[in-house]
C-alpha cells in the first residue's frame, strides 16, 4: 500500500474504522497497512478516539494483550435522537397518511435511506453492548430499517417471508395468528439463514397487536436460538391484549381520528429503554 503521511493515515484509518464497526482490529494490521511503528499507530488512534467521542460519532475501545486491538462502536447523541424523532413524529402526523384499519402510509419514510440510516444508528446505540449475531425482519417493509441496523452492528440480516422462494432452499415454517385480523397465517425462513444458538434482534416497521413479531419470536425458537431484543419504528396504541410485552419503539401512534382527520404521534419508549440499559450496564 502507498506510504501515507500522518494526515493521510488518520483519514484512511478513520474511514476503515467507520466501515468496520464492532470488529476487533489488531494494531499490527494498521502497522503493516501503513508501514508504521505500533507506537505511531497508538498515537493516531488516540487522536481519532478524542474526535469520535467529542463529536458523538462513537466510542473507540482498546483491548490490551497479544490478541487485542481496537474496536469502533457507533453511537448517537441523545439530543440528536430527540430532535430527529420529533421531526419524524411531525411527518407521521400528516392526516393523509391514514389507511384503513388504523395503519399509516410510510413508504416514503421507509424508502428514505438517510432517515433509515439515522434510525438504524439509534437502535445500534441501544444494542451496542448486546451480543447480536443476526437481524431478523419480515418482508418487505421492514427490510430497509433492518439493513440499516445491521450495518451499524456489523451483522447479517435474515428475512422472514409469507411465500416460498425456490432460491432459498428448504424452509422452516410456522403458523401464527395475526394480531389485527385474528387470521391464521404462515411465515417461513430458509434453514440456512439462521444458525442454531444465534442471538437474534428482531426489527420491524410497524406493530399494532404484535402478531407478526410474536410469530417471528416463535420462529426463532424453532431454530433453538434466542431473541435478545425487538425494535419497531412505529407502535400503534392497541385496546386489546398485545401479544408482545418486551419491545423498543421509536415512535408511538397514539390517536387516529379519520373523521376529524387527526393523527397524533409521539416519541415511543426508546429513551426509557435506553435509560434502563445504561443503569444495567453501570450495575454490571
From TrEMBL:
Belongs to the purine/pyrimidine phosphoribosyltransferase family. PurR subfamily. InterPro entries: PRTase-like (IPR029057), PRTase_dom (IPR000836), Pur/Pyrimidine_PRTase (IPR050118), PuR_N (IPR015265), PurR_Bsub (IPR010078), WH-like_DNA-bd_sf (IPR036388), WH_DNA-bd_sf (IPR036390). Residues 5-74 form the Bacterial purine repressor N-terminal domain. PANTHER family: HYPOXANTHINE/GUANINE PHOSPHORIBOSYLTRANSFERASE, PUR OPERON REPRESSOR. It holds the Pfam family PuR_N. SUPFAM superfamilies: PRTase-like, Winged helix' DNA-binding domain. Homodimer. CDD domains: PRTases_typeI (cd06223). Coiled coil: none annotated. This is Pur operon repressor. Residues 112-260 form the Phosphoribosyltransferase domain. Keywords: DNA-binding, Transcription, Transcription regulation. One of its GO terms (biological process) is negative regulation of purine nucleobase metabolic process. The keyword Transcription regulation applies. GO terms for molecular function: DNA binding.
Amino acid at each position: 500500500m502507498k506510504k501515507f503521511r500522518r494526515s493521510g493515515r488518520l483519514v484512511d484509518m478513520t474511514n476503515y474504522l467507520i466501515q468496520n464497526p464492532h470488529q476487533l482490529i489488531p494494531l499490527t494490521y494498521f502497522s503493516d497497512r501503513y508501514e508504521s511503528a505500533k507506537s505511531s499507530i497508538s498515537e493516531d488512534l488516540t487522536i481519532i478516539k478524542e474526535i469520535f467521542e467529542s463529536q458523538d460519532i462513537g466510542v473507540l475501545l482498546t483491548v490490551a494483550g497479544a490478541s487485542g486491538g481496537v474496536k469502533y462502536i457507533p453511537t448517537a447523541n441523545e439530543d440528536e435522537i430527540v430532535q430527529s424523532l420529533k421531526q419524524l413524529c411531525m411527518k407521521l402526523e400528516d392526516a393523509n397518511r391514514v389507511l384503513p384499519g388504523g395503519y399509516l402510509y410510510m413508504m416514503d419514510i421507509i424508502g428514505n435511506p438517510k432517515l433509515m440510516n439515522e434510525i438504524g444508528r439509534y437502535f445500534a446505540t441501544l444494542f451496542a453492548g448486546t451480543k447480536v449475531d443476526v437481524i431478523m425482519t419480515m418482508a418487505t417493509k421492514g427490510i430497509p430499517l433492518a439493513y440499516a441496523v445491521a450495518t451499524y452492528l456489523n451483522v447479517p440480516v435474515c428475512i422472514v417471508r409469507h411465500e416460498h422462494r425456490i432460491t432459498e432452499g428448504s424452509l422452516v415454517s410456522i403458523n401464527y395468528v395475526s394480531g389485527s385480523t385474528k387470521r391464521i397465517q404462515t411465515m417461513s425462513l430458509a434453514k440456512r439463514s439462521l444458525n442454531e444458538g444465534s442471538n437474534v434482534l428482531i426489527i420491524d416497521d410497524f406493530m399494532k397487536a404484535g402478531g407478526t413479531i410474536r410469530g417471528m419470536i416463535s420462529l426463532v425458537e424453532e431454530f433453538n436460538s434466542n431473541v435478545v431484543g425487538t425494535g419497531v419504528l412505529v407502535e400503534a396504541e392497541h385496546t386489546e391484549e398485545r401479544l408482545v410485552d418486551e419491545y423498543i419503539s421509536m415512535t408511538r401512534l397514539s390517536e387516529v381520528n379519520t373523521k376529524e382527520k387527526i393523527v397524533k404521534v409521539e416519541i415511543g419508549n426508546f429513551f426509557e429503554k435506553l435509560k434502563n440499559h445504561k443503569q444495567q450496564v453501570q450495575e454490571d
